[in-house]
């Protein structure tokens, strides 16, 4: 999971894109979001991804503040998700979505 942006603001007020990819099937989803706050990212992840595809066994993100927040850690714990993260300054380990979000 990674976030693309900031982009120009859309008519509906969105400025970022949340990218979520399944490393096994290579299925990728993209969700327009207005900000990259932890509450927004967690809500969209649960409402748009988890409710459609189920709870993933593992979630791999970079070390962005939104993904490392207490809210996101609690969400992962409540859903039983093994939360992993990239090594600092080495986004290559998040390669499948990082390619989508690099300019």
From TrEMBL:
What residue stretches are annotated with the Integrase catalytic domain? Answer: 1-103
Name of a matching Pfam family: rve
Gene3D superfamilies associated with the record: Ribonuclease H-like superfamily/Ribonuclease H
GO BP terms, alphabetized: DNA integration
GO terms, molecular function:
nucleic acid binding
Cited PROSITE patterns: INTEGRASE
Query: Could you identify this protein by its name?
Result: Integrase catalytic domain-containing protein
């Amino acid at each position: 999971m990674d976030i693309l942006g900031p982009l120009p603001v859309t008519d509906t007020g969105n400025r970022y894109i949340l990218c979520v990819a399944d490393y096994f099937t290579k299925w990728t989803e993209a969700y327009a979001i207005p900000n990259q706050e932890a509450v927004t990212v967690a809500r969209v992840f649960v409402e748009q991804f988890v409710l459609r595809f189920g709870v993933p066994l593992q979630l791999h993100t970079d070390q962005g503040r939104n993904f490392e927040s207490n809210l996101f850690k609690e969400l992962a714990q409540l859903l039983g998700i093994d939360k992993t993260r990239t090594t600092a300054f080495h986004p290559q380990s998040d390669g499948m979505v990082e390619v989508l979000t690099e300019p």
